[in-house]
Design brief:
heterodimer, A: alpha/beta, Nucleotidyltransferase, domain 5, Rossmann fold, five-stranded mixed beta sheet, 17 helices, B: mainly beta, Glucose Oxidase, domain 1, OB fold (Dihydrolipoamide Acetyltransferase, E2P), eleven-stranded mixed beta sheet, about 10% helix
């Protein structure tokens, strides 16, 4: 890893994705950092290359051709940049490619340290293959067998509050020691300890003869307090170490990057944390990255980040989505009749060709229906893991090809149906998938992400107000008065069960005044601005979603499809 | 645009690694001829473990004393009933092995016994000659023949004589089409839509199934049957592309090897290999999408149809569903010219 240059200007981010390798270029324009261009080519970490380098080379070549700047000389990346403008000053690497890491978590109490260890595990692309706590009543030998059979890439040990139990942590270390002793040297998992700091030396001594023990601050210093952030950073570094074995060529690039390569989910979370720090809202920021193999969800409030990565997505991730869902949970979102077999076959076919694009109205509808279900599943799991009942966010930042490469109205509909937020929410789309790259860049150049975010790199889809009322469908629940800056006004009647696009143009400022006609919860966060607030129109204007929560779709298929079409038309999609 | 290639090659020189995930034994040497179904490497898998606490069993005061009473060393084999540790005295207390196995660890007065486990075996997957050998790890096999890659496989390997059902490989295979004469044969057919057909094929002991497509609801059954299945096109009712059908037709009655392992995420495809007594050339795994290339449409509409790339359209093309993407005009086998997104094509060669 090279030392970051304080005078660094241009920055190149390389993202090794499951399907594509992308190169993103950032540089100073008139003294401000801007996103200047991107390239995208098939990833080559799999057959026949089994090395990321070929894909990286092609991505750089394509970026070079697209931007008319020189990055390569004799097929090598020019770094640092030269006075003649060739090359780049800083390089960062992020990745989503590779199978979910097999993680075994060991802790003491099920709903204390083991729960924190689980949260730490889901903050990266992972499959939880084993969990052992004090309440595990299997014989010692059975636990050893279970851990050996699980073949973890990483054993994560938590347990013991500060000044708390040491004996039980010692027993866990002994169990892991036996497992490591029985595992061939070249197959031994990484070990990370994030428990009682008083036991740090004991655990390290017991296990270090089998390899490095990575020590992070205690994730559960007291019963009541959970501190995940430092351990999440350590987890990201551990994941990178493991990925060096999975992604051929990645380790070689680490010597020329300005920061260690990092999982995209980690840098995405870093950006959501940043947004929560600059956001004065009493609500958490929600970030959603809907990928091909994984969906990352991040909620953050005042810098406290809750991060989860789900093996759900619009490519290989459809497999788990189909396994975890009744097909009806997907087909209920279809605005036209398509036989179940056809839907199932199409989605499984998509797992085989994850880069494919829906080319018909029907296949687009199938993918968008699946996206709604994936968003719902991921958010439900995220809330369960963090025991966070909050469904009100400000803003919601989204990225991912399925959300970015369609009409803004369809994107907003997918988000409203899948996430079903309550209260007032602004939806921002990251159409170029910049957030993970910006999160990685932040480690090298703190100004760059700030200025790029301010440069309209994101698209404001619109502000959506989702009031809750017990009124029957069709009943008037409130009037909305819009006061434009020009002094003009318009009033709109809002009926339960409907969706409305208010006539506020993109970028236009207006003041909204709400006059409830029946008992209505306008926003769970009650403050002085709840009934009268300023909005800036998004690309979908400003939307009132009075369909209720949770959304109840008619059981009758014909009525349901008519309703879906009506809602879609309300947003002009 | 560079895109992965799906191979449909009448003659190719093929090179395949066969590696164990753990250390084990390689059963062939450089220069040996192997058949596709030969087991070329194997490793011992972990058996169940028993942790025997000598101190507690013999009622000793501490771990150090227990350590002294242990009569076996790490690595030694034991049989059920063997005395592992024993106290002194006229009536000694003993700790006996509860199962056949091996002492794999002695740790603070505890004996860790591993019972005999199963074997992990790797098959050759192709017929040919061993050209490289990595001790304890695996080997490289090279051979010549026809190679066809599919899109999904059920993870099993077998070989047999190729039989073709139907004239176009687009018809549905049903139980009624199967009979006892197919025992051991690899059957090429169009589509399977029922579980009953897959089960019947197992009952008739067929050697394997090459299908154009299968209903996705049968995936679990397809994984459970004892013979390999390879889908050439995928899920749904997709006919076999004409290029693949033509190539397979010319090889009917020849031995064909099905290797149903694949991982779409790593671009690893299930494949079928037909050994031929001729020298082929190595294949290219990526190709540029250019005019005149033979391509296949991977998803609806036109899924499974092979075509010739006529032109790549400049800029982005607007499709009826509102998607604006890079697209190409392709000429289907029916001579109809249609426009499809570039990413929905793969190159057949």
């Amino acid at each position: 890893m090279s030392t970051p240059s304080v005078e660094a200007e241009s920055l190149l981010s390389i993202e090794i994705g499951t399907i594509h390798t992308r190169a993103l270029l950032f540089d100073l324009v008139d003294g401000q950092y801007r996103f200047l261009g991107a390239s995208r080519v098939p990833s080559t970490y799999g057959a026949p290359y089994y090395d990321i380098s070929e894909g990286v080379y092609r991505a750089l070549k394509q970026l070079q051709d697209g931007t008319a700047r020189i990055f390569l000389e004799d097929s090598r990346l020019v770094i640092p940049g030269r006075a003649d403008g060739a090359g780049i000053d800083s390089l960062v690497f992020i990745f989503t490619a590779g199978p979910g890491l097999r993680i075994a978590v060991l802790g003491l109490l099920e709903d204390v340290s083991l729960e924190s260890a689980r949260r730490l595990a889901i903050s990266t692309q992972s499959v939880l293959v084993e969990a052992i706590g004090l309440n595990d009543h299997r014989e010692h030998a059975e636990q050893v067998d279970a851990l050996l059979k699980a073949k973890p890439d990483l054993i994560l040990i938590a347990g013991g509050t500060e000044k708390g139990s040491t004996r039980s942590v010692g027993k866990i270390a002994e169990l892991v020691s036996i497992v490591l002793q029985l595992t061939p040297e070249d197959r031994r998992p990484e070990i990370m300890y994030a428990g009682n700091q008083a036991m740090q030396n004991h655990v390290t001594e017991a296990l270090s003869r089998f390899g490095d023990v990575l020590v992070a601050p205690n994730v559960r210093p007291t019963i009541e307090n959970e501190v995940l952030a430092p351990a999440q950073e350590m987890m990201a570094r551990t994941v990178t170490r493991i990925r060096y074995q999975h992604l051929g060529g990645l380790q070689a690039y680490a010597s020329i990057t300005s920061a260690a390569p990092a999982p995209s989910s980690n840098t995405f979370g870093r950006m959501i944390r940043y947004f929560s720090q600059i956001n004065n809202s009493q609500k958490p920021v929600l970030g959603v990255d809907l990928g091909a193999s994984y969906t990352t969800l991040a909620t953050a409030q005042q810098g406290n980040l809750e991060l989860s990565v789900h093996n759900l997505g619009m490519g290989a991730g459809l497999k788990l989505a189909l396994e975890k869902s009744n097909l009806a949970e997907i087909t209920r979102w279809l605005p036209m009749q398509i036989p179940d077999d056809e839907v199932r076959d199409y989605l499984w076919q998509k797992t085989l060709f994850p880069a494919s694009i829906p080319a018909t109205v029907e296949t687009l509808a199938i993918e968008q229906a699946a996206a709604r279900q994936i968003l719902a599943l991921a958010l439900r799991t995220h809330r369960d893991h963090y025991r966070n009942p909050m469904l009100s966010f400000e803003p919601v930042l989204v990225s991912g090809a399925t959300l970015a490469h369609t009409s803004p109205a369809q994107t907003l509909m997918m988000l409203l149906d899948g996430l079903q937020p309550v209260g007032t929410t602004t939806f921002e789309l990251d159409p170029y998938g910049l957030m993970p790259a910006l999160g990685a860049a932040a480690e090298v150049n703190a100004m760059l992400p700030v200025q790029v975010v301010e440069s309209n790199a994101f698209v404001n889809l619109g502000t959506v107000l989702s009031p809750i009322s017990n009124a029957r469908d069709g009943t008037s629940i409130m009037n909305v008065r819009i006061e434009f800056e020009s002094g003009e006004e318009s009033t709109h009647e809002i009926r339960q069960g409907n969706l409305y696009q208010l006539p506020i143009q993109s970028g236009q400022a207006a003041r909204i005044h709400l006059e409830p006609l029946r008992p209505v919860e306008i926003d769970p966060i009650h403050n002085a601005d709840t009934r009268s607030f300023k909005v800036i129109g998004g690309i979908c204007g400003t939307v009132i979603d009075a369909r209720g929560r949770s959304l109840n779709l008619p059981a009758d298929a014909s009525r349901r499809r008519d309703l879906l079409k009506k809602w879609a038309m309300a947003l002009g999609s | 645009m560079i895109t992965p290639v799906t191979h449909l090659l009448p003659l190719v020189h093929l090179r395949r690694d066969r590696m164990l995930p753990i250390r084990g034994r390689v059963l062939f040497n450089v220069g040996d001829e192997v058949k596709a179904t030969d087991i070329v490497a194997e490793a011992d898998q972990h058996g169940a473990h028993l942790i025997l606490d000598v101190r507690r069993a013999l009622n000793l005061r501490n771990a150090e004393e227990a350590q002294k009473r242990i009569r076996y060393k790490v690595g030694e084999k034991v049989e059920k009933g063997d005395i592992l540790a024993q106290t002194g005295g006229i009536i000694p207390r003993v700790l006996r092995a509860q199962a056949d196995g091996r002492v794999i660890g002695i740790h603070r007065g505890q004996i860790i016994l591993e019972a005999a486990g199963g074997k992990l075996q790797i098959r050759a997957g192709i017929s040919g000659r061993v050209t490289e050998m990595l001790p304890e790890r695996g080997l490289v096999i090279e051979g010549d023949g026809a190679l066809l890659q599919g899109v999904w496989g059920n993870g099993k390997i077998a070989s047999g004589v190729l039989l073709i059902r139907g004239q176009s490989a687009s018809d549905e295979l049903t139980r009624a089409n199967l009979d006892a004469n197919m025992r051991g044969a690899v059957v090429l057919a169009g589509h399977v839509a029922t579980r009953e057909t897959l089960i019947a094929a197992q009952e008739f002991q067929i050697g394997g199934l090459i299908l154009a497509s299968m209903t996705a609801s049968l995936i679990q059954t397809a994984i459970e049957v004892n013979y390999p299945i390879i889908l050439m096109e995928g899920f749904g009712r997709i006919p076999l592309n004409q290029a693949a059908f033509n190539l397979l037709s010319t090889n009917e009655k020849r031995d064909v090897i099905l290797n149903g392992f694949g991982d779409a995420n790593r671009n690893e495809k299930p494949e079928l290999f037909i050994p031929l007594p001729a020298q082929g050339n190595p294949s290219q795994d990526y190709a540029e999408l250019t005019q005149g290339k033979t391509v296949r449409v991977t998803v609806p509409p036109y899924a499974g149809q092979s075509a010739v790339l006529v032109t790549i359209r400049p800029g982005l093309t607007l499709f009826a569903n509102g998607q604006r993407v890079n697209a190409a005009d392709i000429q289907l086998d029916t001579t109809q010219i249609v426009t499809v997104p570039l990413v929905n094509l793969d190159v057949l060669e």
